[in-house]
Amino acid sequence: MLLGADEATFRRGTRLGIDWGTTRVGVAACDPDALLTYPVETIPARNQQQALVRLKELVGEYEPIEIVMGLPLALDGRAAQAAEFIQEVAELILGNSDVPLRLVDERLTTAAADKLLAHVDTRARRHVIDQLAAVGILEGTLAYERHTGSPPGQLCVCSSTEGEE
């Protein structure tokens, strides 16, 4: 079987997808060949420190090559108001993990997840909608990398290590 340029350069490895909100954190994962993405869990986010501890546990369990976290952008592509909050959370995650973190466009992922769950009771929907949004973030990231041969978004570097040798 001949491989296209995008398939030849696709990075193999498990990734975690994160949809971080002020109330809940949706987590998704993919298999090492990135053929299957699936919801993992919803972490309560009201206590940010506890959410970071649980995410660190999941990183240890899944051993991802990177974490892909949704960055809220407005429909015109500019950073939405919540983007600054997400960048602060990304710094905290990087301070707790040695796994690279990539921020990617998450426009409409929650809306798409909500549409998929339209038939589910609103209370029940709350527990899985963030997981499905994380699946959407991860699927979009993997599709982009397969198509272009390079990962999307911006790779984050912890500011505490900037300028160090």
Give the biggest sheet: 6 strands, mixed
Hey, roughly how much beta strand do the residues contain? 15-25%
Number of strand elements: 6
Portion of residues within helices:
40-55%
CATH architectural designation: 2-Layer Sandwich
What would the CATH topology be? Nucleotidyltransferase, domain 5
Could you name the CATH homologous superfamily?
Answer: YqgF/RNase H-like domain
Tell me the radius of gyration. Answer: 16 Å
Query: N-to-C SSE series?
Result: HEEEHEHEHHE
In the residues, how many domains can be counted? 1
The class by helix and strand makeup works out as alpha/beta
Mean pLDDT: 81
In the sheet with the most strands, the strands line up as 3-2-1-4-5-6
Assign the CATH class. Answer: Alpha Beta
- The rounded distance between the terminal residues' Cα atoms is 44 Å
SSE layout and pairing:
Layout: H1 5-9, E1 15-20, E2 24-30, E3 37-44, H2 48-62, E4 66-71, H3 83-96, E5 101-105, H4 109-116, H5 122-148, E6 154-156
Parallel strand pairs: 1-4, 4-5
Antiparallel strand pairs: 1-2, 2-3, 5-6
Helix pairs in contact: 4-5
What this model shows, in words?
- The chain is an alpha/beta fold and 165 residues long.
- It has a single domain (13-150), classed as YqgF/RNase H-like domain (Nucleotidyltransferase, domain 5, 2-Layer Sandwich).
- It is 42% helix and 21% strand.
- It contains five helices and six strands.
- It has helices spanning 5-9, 48-62, 83-96, 109-116, 122-148, and strands at 15-20, 24-30, 37-44, 66-71, 101-105, 154-156.
- The chain has a six-stranded mixed β-sheet with strand order 3-2-1-4-5-6, with helices on both faces.
- Helix 4 crosses helix 5.
- The chain is globular.
- It starts with a helix and ends in a 9-residue tail after the last strand.
